[in-house]
Every structure is written in C-alpha cells, then in structure tokens.
Amino acid sequence: MANIKSAKKRALTAVKRHERNKMVKSSLRTAVRKFVEAGTEDAQTKLNAAFAALDKAASKGVIHKNTAARKKARLAKRLAGKVTA
C-alpha cells in the first residue's frame, strides 16, 4: 500500500475508474451481442443501440475513438449481410 497521501488518493481513484470502465465495457459488449443475436426485423434498432454504446464508451475514454469507428463499420457491414441474406 502507498505511504504518501496523494498516492493513496490516486489508488482509490484508480479503483473507482476501473469499476466505471468495467461497467461501460460490459454494457457495450451486451449491446453488441444483442445486435449479433437479433433477427432481421429488429436488427436496425439493435444496431442503433450498439452505435450509441460505442460512442458513449469512446467519449468517456474507455475505448479509443478509432476502435469505436472500426467496430461500428464492422457492425454496419454485418447488418448489410443480414438484410441481403
């Protein structure tokens, strides 16, 4: 454990940040999984929810903005495959 007061505070804030990031990532994965498992009729609404979760995670700094853009592109491509197939 840290001895210096500022180091103790940083350790506590790191734990809080870790918990928040874990929650955001979990909800992000859930939104993406729901889209992947969705049928063709409600895929668009699930895609919109996944996009919102990705954008929110990127804005909070949990994932990088380019990672969010890459995942959004792959999900959109997957939607195009669902619609035509």
Task: Please explain how this structure is put together.
The protein has 85 residues and is mainly α. It has three helices and no strands. The protein has a domain at 40-85. The longest helix is centred in the first third of the chain and has 33 residues, at 5-37. The chain starts with a helix and ends with a helix. The model has no long low-confidence stretch (mean pLDDT 92).
Summarize the structure.
The protein has 85 residues and is mainly α. It has three helices and no strands.
Index terms:
84% helix, 85 residues
Coarse morphology: elongated
* Rg measurement, Å: 17 Å
Kindly report how far apart the N and C termini lie: 57 Å
Query: Structural class of the helices, strands and pairings?
Result: mainly alpha
Strand count, sense and closure of the main sheet?
none
Average of pLDDT: 92
- Percent helix range: over 70%
Topology as H/E string?
A: HHH
Quick one: how many beta strands?
A: 0
Q: β content, as a range?
A: under 5%
Unreliable stretches covering 5 or more consecutive residues: none
Topology (elements, then pairings):
Blueprint: H1 5-37, H2 43-60, H3 65-84
